[in-house]
Amino acid sequence: MFGRIVLGLVSGILTVFVLTWLALHSFFSAHMDVVAVIILAIGLVVAGVVWRSSRKLAYRAVSESELQNGFDVHLSLNYLVMMFGFGIITFGTFGLFFWLASRRFPRRLDMQGITLRNGSYHSWISITLVTKLTKRINHVPVTTAWQLEFGNEKAEIVARSLREGASVMKFLSRTLGGDLT
Q1: Which of 68, 73, 14 is nearest to 40 (CA)?
Q2: DSSP structural state of residue 139
């Protein structure tokens, strides 16, 4: 999976490089332009193949025994590609924002509590508030995330950004005793 991410990033960088090179050197030899177009086409094909295969690897279902014993939670492939892609395009600025936002996402869930990506652990007993975060899309409210508050620290559950997102929501519905789907 990591190899696919790297391959996608390399092909994206290659594509941007070739487009820039074409723009800056459009007045030079015709043979150079043909080579650049071939490299650009290869880069676009590789990026398309990586994107297509990443859709299949983006999400993972958790087994019933893992729901009982606890499981690790990973960032989805789409989130990682966006984080690294925007990080490259914006010289690290947006990548840093994505990384800082992911620090409030869960790393591990079990029957005793939740471990966040920033390393802090909170038991389910210490939860003080569960908030549903919604966004209006075409005048229809859509749930985008759930926010769990543990005193002064907050955890965000964004199912689309987690590889095991549906399983996380199922686990939280069981653990917290409500419908969070």
Answers
A1: 14
A2: T
* Secondary structure in 3-state letters for 1-56: CHHHHHHHHHHHHHHHHHHHHHHHCCCCCHHHHHHHHHHHHHHHHHHHHHHHHHHH
Residue 131 predicted with pLDDT over 60: yes
Edge-to-edge strands of the sheet including 140-150?
129-137, 140-150, 153-157
What count of residues does the chain have?
181
- pLDDT (0 to 100) of residue 110: 86
Phi, psi (deg, nearest 5) at residue 103: -65, -20
The lowest-confidence range among 44-58, 131-145, 164-178 is 44-58
**Is the separation of the CB atoms in 50 and 7 below 8 Å?**
yes
pLDDT at 12: 67
The mean per-residue pLDDT over the stretch 27-34 comes to 57
CA distance 114 to 120: 8
H helices of 64-164, in order, are: 64-69, 77-89, 93-102
Judge whether 115 and 107 are in contact, CB under 8 Å: yes
